[in-house]
Amino acid sequence: MQVVIGGASGFLGTALTQHLRQRGHQVTRLVRSADPADDASLWDPYTGRIDQIVIDRADAVVNLSGASVAHWPRTEKRRRMILESRTAATGTLAKAVAASADPPALISSSGMSYYGVDCGDEVLTERTDAADSGFLPGVVQAWEGAASPAVEAGARVCFIRTTLVLKDDEGLLRFMLPAWKLGLGARLGPGRHYMSFISLNDWVRAATLLIESSDLSGPFNFGAPVPVTNAEFTDTLGEVVHRPTFLVAPRFALKAALGSMAGDLLGSMRVSPSALVDAGFTFEQPDLRSALEAALQ
Q1: What residues have CB less than 8 Å from 33, skipping those under 6 apart?
Q2: Strands 186-188 and 40-42, how do they pair?
Q3: b (16+ CB within 10 A) / e for 46-71
Q4: What is the Rg, in whole angstroms, of the alpha carbon atoms belonging to the chain?
Q5: CA 109, CA 93: separation in Å to the nearest integer?
Q6: Helix or strand or coil: residue 289?
């Protein structure tokens, strides 16, 4: 297959590109600055600049572009960047897909915040309604909405609603591991809120399934089938790195230090990968311990 990837330089894009090439697919990386490599194609998602020929030749276009939501403090300028980086990239790719005589599939990154930021014990499937308020839910809903030109053109469109992807030097573990290895791992507040996660290996395999499919479309929750509470996550990570986890980060201290971003850490998200399971996907790291052990190899 011919696969085009926006956001190929991130840790998800890098891993996906390598995996696809190992499977014999040809990958073109969309880049925003001059790159002499044969597999690079210049684009500017903010102005809509893209090589239409590259899109016309593709079997699938993958969008993984977007500014990090973990940046602190989350100023108004940063909020605009988080939103616009996602909607601009998705909109540019969706319009290019729609303009193609034979539209390729569009596989677009999204997030579990579609459902909210604190959903308690509710099991969140792809049939769960969107949240009706909140910054991150609004971003994710606008992000998916920007793909509408491709949907209206009849292209096969999939949305990857990603949970926490576990990799030792990226994402959540990048911030947690140093403290845990020093024996300073701490439960967040009461620790009863759910944390949904997925191993990098399973994320890449699931994304490949969507790319290679001829009929899968719609939203897909990318999360392991057994979410855990924060207390369970804390203790399991401590066991994997062989360190104690008896500390607690009080809720009030997190709110005082992080402001509105504390809600991202304290919110409960119990996500179920129902659509992936229905599509026949089998997780190689279905539980937290196996996912953490894979991340730390």
Answers
A1: 42
A2: unpaired
A3: eeeebeeebbbebbbbbbbbbeebee
A4: 19
A5: 12
A6: helix
In this prediction, residue 225 carries a pLDDT of 97
- Reply yes or no on whether the pLDDT at 65 is more than 80: yes
Reduced to 3 states (helix: H, G, I; strand: E, B; else coil), residue 227 is coil
What average pLDDT score do residues 264-268 get? 91
- Within a 10 A sphere around the Cβ of 291, how many other Cβ atoms? 26
A 10 A CB-CB count for 32 gives 14
Peptide bond into 73 cis (omega under 30): yes
pLDDT score for 173: 93
Q: 190, 131 in Cβ contact below 8 A?
A: no
Which one-letter DSSP state was computed for residue 44? Answer: B
Token look-up 């855990």 returns 228
Mean pLDDT in residue range 231-257: 93
Q: Of 45, 53, 29, 116, give the one whose Cα is nearest residue 87.
A: 45
Q: How far apart are CA 95 and CA 81, in angstroms?
A: 21
Rounded Cα gap, residues 61 and 210, in angstroms:
11
Q: Is the dihedral of CA 275, 278, 284, 285 positive or negative?
A: positive
- For β-strands 2-6 and 105-111, DSSP reports them as unpaired
Mean pLDDT of 88-114: 98
Q: Which pLDDT score is estimated for 175?
A: 87
Count the neighbouring beta carbons within 10 Å of the beta carbon of residue 252: 10
Residue whose entry in the numeric block shows the structure tokens 């399973």 = 202
Instruction: Give the pair of three-digit tokens for residue 71.
Output: 């940046």
* Beta bridge partner(s), residue 221: 161
Amino acid at 179: A
What is d(CA 224, CA 195) in angstroms, rounded to the nearest whole number?
A: 10
Q: Domains in the chain, please, with CATH?
A: 2-231+255-295 (3.40.50.720)
